[in-house]
Amino acid sequence: MIYFDNGATSYPKPFSVVNAVQRSFCDFCANPGRGGYNSAMKSAEMIYNARSAAADLFNANTENVIFTSGCTYSLNAAIKGLCRLGSHFVISDLEHNSVVRPLEKLKKSGKCDYSVAKVTPDESETVNNFVNKFRKNTVAVICTLSSNVFGIMPPITKIAHEAHKNGILFILDAAQGAGYLPVDMKKTGADIICCAGHKGLFGPMGTGLLILSKDINIDTLAEGGTGSNSESLNQPVLSPDKFESGTPNVHGIAGLFEGIKFVENIKCENILMHENKIIKYIFDELKACQSIILYTDFYDGVQKSPVLSFNVKSKKSEETAALLAENGICVRGGLHCAPLAHRKMGTLGVGTVRITPSWFTDEKETEFLVNCIKKIAK
Amino acid sequence: MDKVIFKFNSITYAIKAKNTAEGLGCKTKIMKNPNPKKGEGCGYSLTVFGNADEIKNAFDTVKLKYTGIEVYK
């Protein structure tokens, strides 16, 4: 199998991650934060250390790192937790359905409204497009770190700065990018970071992070047992307990912890450099083919992440992806759960074939991919 | 040397406190709060051996929230 679908979930996982998950069934067999016996404390210590490692990676406070089931849950928690009757949100025109669908549902139920700001190659224009959408009742801007389809990176720090000037929170969707694009909570100005644990952070599927920059008044999405304040019928008010009801995904978190350590060890910058090298090679090779359509230019001076979308002119994206699958190549065709981004780029009808490499992708695999695409495009 | 018992509602804060105290070179022990008072159900206690004022200052610096403290000189 030649895997180029790391945008969906990373594969392979580092051995340390696989081993940690396997070992966790013995090493961390007890429920953390409930009992006081040794094995329960051992689970709790591991969870704390994982939380602390995530906090270090994003330059956040340990207690403000919340483990979730994935970025979708994190975004739902942030959006629905901030939404009050009459609230307004501003999002970019690159957002994933995990942002758009919760907002659309809230809008249809009459609870909130949202506006879509256009991202352009001109940073100032993009920032102005966001500012022009701000209203008196805007509570948050939600913006992707990197488009999961086209790799386009909105100027998040500048958008966050303008949001704050207007008393608006900034939520960063770092599903695509966390792990290979360095994200510093304080430097970016993000009030909330939502990210997946199983993509660039190399954790198991079913893991994600919700990170708060401070005590933000977010309502809870779920309530229940937290192992703390148990005689109270009310949900605890302190993070992370407030947002982590029920038994945590200990085995997933054990793997995610090792994934974060793996990223910290190699460094985001080196992972990015490796993936960029691969994507630029593919871009250069495919650009020379007249029967292939590329949607982004890696040499136009606009910062992009290592995500490449293309189409073979005579074929639908799903057809091309299926032909590549016959050669053992894993890529994703279609709309990638991001209809806004496809509408923006004029690909809503056909979708695109998306290539997303990882730290483990090598030159031989990349050459094979390029050769297969060229054969299909002939 | 003082024996200081801090009480926490949450295991996260108890472990953060433990790490902070151990950073000062103190010996520590976390256990379930053995004698919970009203409002302290299911909490944890951290026993620290060291200078009580120094430990409290260190906890204040990292904004650690504890629900109770007992100092034995």
Structure description:
The complex is a heterodimer of chains A (378) and B (73). With 378 residues, chain A is of the alpha/beta class. Helix content of chain A is 40%, strand content 14%. Chain A has helices at residues 15-27, 38-58, 71-82, 97-108, 123-131, 156-165, 185-188, 250-266, 268-287, 317-326, 339-345, 363-377, and strands at residues 2-3, 65-68, 87-92, 112-117, 138-144, 169-173, 192-196, 208-212, 292-294, 308-312, 329-330, 353-355. The two termini of chain A are 23 Å apart. The model of chain A has no long low-confidence stretch (mean pLDDT 97). Chain B is α+β, with helices and mostly antiparallel strands. Chain B has a single domain (2-67), classed as Alpha-Beta Plaits, CATH 3.30.70. Chain B is built from two helices and four strands; from the N terminus they run βαββαβ. A four-stranded antiparallel sheet of chain B has the order 2-3-1-4. Chain B starts with a strand and ends with a strand. Classes of the chains: A alpha/beta (378), B alpha+beta (73). Chain A binds chain B through residues 32-36, 41, 44-45, 48, 51, 62-63, 226-232, 236, 238, 240-241, and chain B through 9-13, 15-16, 30-32, 38-39, 41-44, 65.
